[in-house]
Design brief:
Length: 103
């Protein structure tokens, strides 16, 4: 019997849930950090997932099962929903070193 291609996470025909920024930052343990350009970001360590992401620092793939960080602007120009939509997955080393000068 062929495997169904339909997702079992959301019932067919039901609308997507709205993005809850408070839940996103709270449940992921978001903390404030300075980003590569000096701007303030919310940073969290996500739970393992089956997805694969591309690190903006090195352009290499990140396996969703490996430990990495997710960062998004703390104060977006168009509000918290737009800022959360800009979240990116980074290798921890890339996040800690990308765009930072050593003095």
């Amino acid at each position: 019997m062929p495997k169904s291609r339909r997702s079992r996470k959301r019932p067919y025909g039901q609308p997507h849930e709205e993005l809850d920024v408070e839940r996103l930052s709270g449940s992921m343990g978001g903390r404030r950090e300075r980003g590569p350009g000096g701007e303030e970001y919310l940073v969290a360590t996500p739970r393992p997932s089956e997805k694969t992401y591309t690190c903006p620092g090195c352009s290499q793939e990140i396996d969703g099962q490996s430990v990495h960080v997710v960062a998004w602007p703390a104060d977006g120009l168009f509000g918290p929903d737009a800022a959360a939509a800009q979240r990116r997955h980074w290798h921890t080393h890339c996040w800690n070193t990308f765009g930072r000068t050593r003095g």
